[in-house]
Design goal:
By secondary structure, this protein is an alpha/beta fold. The chain has one domain (13-279): Glycoside hydrolase/deacetylase (TIM Barrel). The chain is 42% helix and 12% strand. It has 12 helices and 10 strands. It has helices spanning 28-33, 44-67, 77-82, 86-92, 112-130, 146-155, 186-189, 204-221, 231-234, 237-251, 261-270, 273-276; strands at 16-23, 72-75, 96-99, 136-137, 158-159, 169-171, 174-176, 224-230, 256-258, 278-279. The strands form 3 sheets. Strands 1, 2, 3, 8 and 9 form a 5-stranded parallel sheet that branches. Helix 6 links the parallel strand 4 (136-137) and strand 5 (158-159). Helix 2 (44-67) runs parallel beside helix 10 (237-251) and helix 8 runs parallel beside helix 10 (237-251). The chain is globular, with a radius of gyration of 21 Å.
Length: 305
Amino acid sequence: MTAPRPRYEWPEGRKSAFSFTVDVDAEAPLLWTLRDEPSYRRLGQYEQRLYGPRAGIWNLLDLLDRFGIKGTFFVPGLVAETHPELLPAFVERGHEIGLHGYFHEIVSQSSDEEFVAALDASLAIFKAQAGIVPKGFRSPAWEMTPGMLAELARRGLYDSSLMGFDHPYTIGGVAEVPVQWTIDDAVYFKFAGGGVDNWPPMAPGPILDGWLDEWEVIHRFGGLFMLTVHDWISGRAQRIRMLERLLERILADKSVWIATVGEIAAHHAASANAGRFAVPVETPPSIGPRRSLSPLAGRGGTAAP
């Protein structure tokens, strides 16, 4: 008989966990995209993203103050450098700050060596501006390599970029606090305008309904609801109201543990969960030469060429 999957154990007998996180991307992803276009002159997307550090992030901070909860703010080094008021403000209000690349560089467009340089540069900025060495990392665009994981393990950092469970787990010696695309605001509302190829923003009502359904079942499963929002997207009025409704529902249930990502990572590392939910670092296997997808293949028939 197959052994039952062990249930994740949360502190103080709590049934599930919730974490509010902000990826403070601001203008960094746009500048990374335009790194080979020094003559770029269009202001639309740039100003849209600057709404985040100018106004959106402060709306999100006020939202968290009203509900009395602490969040985790993952900040690219470039954003911290360009907007030096941000990291001290996050720390002053009692929130956690975490690493998020330097230029919001994409894994597929940079090397592991460049990752190390970006990581060390960001660590130096965080220490200089906030007097804090961050304990956690979240990869831009939520991708990871075995080499990156090894560097995080070497520095004793947790990660929050992968999606192998709906609760924390251990991979390559790193405490992984997983994310999920369906509860990230960007996949629904990331509209840049300006005639670029993107998707129109969705109305918040159906998205809120979906997030509440996700929350209800994750809570029943005893998992982690890892919400991710962005300064320049969910700092807008319509999304603030959406987040108010979401938080009202979640905080009404006293059996959920409201925690920062760092608190969740520390709990995982110190508990029996770390051993029960440890997985190896696995690279995707090669399938070799292209296989036929014909239903006759391997069944005595002749596969189509």
